[in-house]
Specification:
single chain, 205 residues, alpha/beta, 3-stranded antiparallel beta sheet, 4 helices, 17% strand
Length: 205
């Protein structure tokens, strides 16, 4: 009889200890999965919030939750008003998207941006207009004069503008390509002039 009472007391204590390691707050909030009855240090907060891993903190339902920080009307899964700061170790991901590293930190504390694509809204935002027949390509004399007066290429922001306002990456990439395409046209023009001079030179030999 004493053994039975001792076993029952130990069982009750074990349940209480286990229950103290999880926190469920909200209607239908609780554990889920094969280990839902033995979860450790797990919490589920909000309507129908479900947690299935140890040391996990789940906020709200998987389809309905909108968490707001600094505002009362969150519109997204996580909506933050104010400064959002992250503290990370060197050579560790600072930000992941779909389990892929997006931003990392190197040994010198500099951010590393992993491969990504930039999408443009329309074709006019790209630089291929340079190859259209009606494109007004400046003469090299005009380019030279502009550089002498402004100390930078036409249609490219100056160092002062970059420091004061910054640059949009999608815009500066298109502008740099524009200069490459213009340079290609100048090279083609010069090659035509060289070929013409060669022909004239050969006639006089």
């Amino acid at each position: 009889m004493k053994k039975l009472l001792l076993f029952a007391l130990v069982s009750v204590l074990s349940i209480n200890v286990a229950a103290q390691t999880v926190t469920y707050y909200g209607r239908y909030a609780g554990g889920v999965g094969l280990n839902q009855n033995i979860l450790q240090r797990a919490s589920a907060l909000g309507y129908n919030a479900k947690v299935s891993v140890n040391d996990g903190l789940v906020l709200g339902d998987t389809s309905l939750v909108k968490v707001g920080i600094g505002l009362s009307n969150p519109r997204y899964r996580l909506d933050v008003k104010g400064v959002f700061n992250m503290r990370i170790a060197s050579n560790s991901p600072a930000f992941k998207i779909n389990d892929q590293n997006f931003i990392e930190l190197d040994n010198d504390g500099q951010f590393l941006l992993n491969p990504f694509k930039m999408k443009y809204a329309n074709q006019n935002q790209w630089a291929d207009r340079v190859f259209e027949r009606n494109y007004q390509l400046l003469s090299l004399k005009e380019v030279e004069k502009f550089i002498e007066q402004n100390k930078h290429l036409p249609n490219v922001p100056s160092a002062e503008e970059v420091v004061a306002k910054g640059v949009a990456m999608n815009e500066i990439v298109a502008k740099l390509l524009e200069k490459v395409e213009e340079l290609t046209l100048y090279t083609i023009q010069q090659q035509k002039e060289i070929d013409e001079l060669k022909k004239k030179l050969n006639k006089h030999q």
